[in-house]
């Protein structure tokens, strides 16, 4: 879990409380985006993550599926599945048919996919960069820069649909040369899910080994 979570939820950072003068145009766009997602009871996203490092000639792409409802989420990847019901986290490794159980730490921002929609509100300076056309749609490009110069991320770039305030892509630039691009392939608002969806059902995983780390 320590390896996968930072990669897939890499925008969810421990942020400082410093403030900065902000770009009012960017703030208006970000506020509209944030309100759109926070107004939903739940949502499902099919996405791709691409890791690039030009200097090392690395380019790797993986696909995932995540359903979010408040502070609960269920993340499905090729090799593992992570389920968080707000108090307990189950990390299931498919190749080992093993699940690790741990307590959810509400102070750990990496555990909250919803934090992407409020990331800009504290500890970041943001600015409008440009409008761009792609696939018949117009997008606003916003860049976030952390106020903490020791942050391992030096820039985050958001591509936000001008028509409906939805996020199309976000790109994270790290000091080590790695660039992570997350692209929304499919978005489904308010899917029909109940509380049982955000819990691990051992009966559905025959012979699974359970390791309780709580």
Automatic annotation (TrEMBL):
| Entries under Gene3D superfamilies matching the protein | Lipoprotein localisation LolA/LolB/LppX (2.50.20.10)
- Keyword annotations for this protein? Signal
| Signal peptide range | 1-20
Superkingdom per UniProt: Bacteria
Matching entries from Pfam families are given as:
LolA
Membrane-crossing residues?
Answer: none
Q: Which PANTHER family match?
A: OUTER-MEMBRANE LIPOPROTEIN CARRIER PROTEIN
* Protein name per Swiss-Prot or TrEMBL: Cell envelope biogenesis protein LolA
Q: Which organism was this protein described from?
A: Adhaeribacter aerolatus
């Amino acid at each position: 879990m320590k390896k996968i979570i930072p990669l897939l939820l890499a925008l969810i950072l421990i942020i400082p409380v410093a403030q900065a003068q902000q770009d009012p145009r960017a703030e208006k766009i970000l506020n509209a985006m944030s309100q759109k997602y926070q107004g939903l009871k739940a949502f499902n996203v099919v996405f791709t993550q691409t890791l690039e490092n030009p200097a090392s000639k690395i380019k790797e792409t993986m696909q995932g599926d995540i359903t979010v409802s408040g502070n609960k989420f269920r993340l499905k990847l090729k090799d593992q599945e992570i389920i968080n019901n707000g108090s307990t986290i189950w990390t299931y490794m498919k190749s080992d048919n093993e699940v690790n159980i741990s307590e959810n730490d509400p102070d750990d921002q990496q555990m909250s996919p919803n934090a992407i929609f409020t990331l800009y509100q504290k500890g970041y300076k943001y600015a409008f960069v440009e409008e761009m056309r792609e696939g018949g749609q117009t997008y606003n490009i916003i860049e976030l820069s952390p106020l903490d110069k020791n942050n391992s991320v030096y820039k985050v770039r958001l591509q936000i649909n001008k028509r409906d305030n939805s996020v199309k892509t976000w790109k994270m630039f790290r000091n080590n040369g790695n660039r992570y691009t997350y692209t929304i392939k499919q978005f489904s608002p308010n899917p029909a899910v109940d509380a049982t969806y955000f819990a691990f059902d051992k009966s559905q995983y025959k012979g699974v080994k359970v390791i309780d780390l709580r």
